[in-house]
Write a structure and sequence with these properties.
The chain is an alpha/beta fold and 450 residues long. It contains 13 helices and 19 strands. The protein is globular, with a radius of gyration of 23 Å. Bound molecules: S-adenosyl-L-homocysteine (SAH), iron/sulfur cluster and FE3-S4 cluster.
Length: 450
Amino acid sequence: MSQPGFHCLTFGCQMNVNDSQWMARALVRRGFVERPLEEADVVFLNTCSVREKPEQKVHSALGRVRQVNPRAVVGVGGCVAQQLGVELMRRHPQVRLVVGSDGIIHAPEAFVRLLEDKGLHLNYLEFTAEYPDRDPCLDKNEGAGVTPVAFVNIMQGCDNFCAYCIVPFTRGPRKSRSSTAILEECKSWLAQGAGDITLLGQNVNVYGCDDGGDGTSFPELLRKVAALPGLKRLRFVTPHPRDFSEEMVQLFGELPQLCPRLHLPLQSGSDSVLARMGRGYDMARYLDLVSRLRKTRPDIALSTDLIVGFPGETEEEFRDTLHAVEAADFMSSFSFCYSDRPGTRASAMPFKVPREEQLERLERLQNLQNEKSAAWLVGRVGMNSDVLLEGRSRREAEESSDGRETWQGHDPWGDTVNLTLPTGVGRPGLLVPVHFIAAKKHSLMAEATA
Ligand code: SAH
Ligand code: SF4
Ligand code: F3S
């Protein structure tokens, strides 16, 4: 028989993207090859339920799979799989595998069994007591060339139960991965040519503070990863402002590998809304943290997540969020209309903000942020920095014919950067010193300085 084909469809956060990439490597190891959706024997759909919209997308995606490839074995993973469980099989008979957040480790083997046994249905929906560590499948000959940018999970789940958030229900209780396994995975990525590593977790500041930890705290983990030979850049998402210790602030002055960019979710600029959300900090504390970070690392740039139209949010409370965006001077932000999620405290709160009002506030907030984001990029022009090359720019057509080619990568602040280099000079993973020459709407243009 020819090699079975697989196809992954992914919604949601970086953790899901990372899980899907692992799934792909784990299936390749079992003899599968990646194929277009129409030709795949197995389809893995990795889902998100953080708001209502991505949850709805799951059902439309399953409809599309049935239309274009009704013979494929479909497996669903991620947060909607955890939330709806085997109900997904009842609603969509093509689904023969459902894996929750901790059950995903079993999915590659399950796909092999499902192909052999046409009558079989499988589900793995239990939360495990410990971090379900898995072989990252990063053996040398399995790597598809150099991977300049890598993501490494350091924990799973969340115990915070912010009033609006479904994640503690879908990802389960917080549990830390052993620091040895994390360091081993980082080393494997470095051996594949990675220069930029991002550590992933729902609340990374409390890494190691649960029974699953091995006594290593998050600052200690960062020091250990930063010390690995070959690592050029270190990042992490997502920290919680409440749990951001002074030791963590100081690390930004101590570790040159730690990028001067921090994603620090604020959610709202109003103290009363923050209290209703159960975030555990107020604006004074958040801004104090921001000023200590800026003092320690003057070139640090901050980004954030914001929710508008949380239950009971008044116009005045919303304006506090606009003021906060000014006060914290975010280089970018993700902003969302509050969305009711089943089982959360906020879904039972009175005084829901009407949809039109939410959208109107969202637009005002995004207009303000767009101005600030544009100003950030314009302010970068004339500065020197470095770019870690990831691949050839998609705008091949723009290439001039004089023996130069366009490359794309990111600077330490996470900005997308395009630059042209003499043909044959660039390669994925190369760190190029640059000078920024122009700002586009969402990216920077640079030229190499050496
Ligand atoms: N632990 C992560 C949360 C991941 S969810 C963190 O703290 O960043 C990503 C973002 O989605 C959250 O920061 C929040 O801004 C948004 N979000 C979560 N639940 C939401 C809801 N019910 N409605 C609207 N936005 C929500
Ligand atoms: Fe990621 Fe949260 Fe969506 Fe789950 S609900 S996929 S953790 S963003
Ligand atoms: Fe959600 Fe708050 Fe945890 S946003 S993932 S409950 S930190």
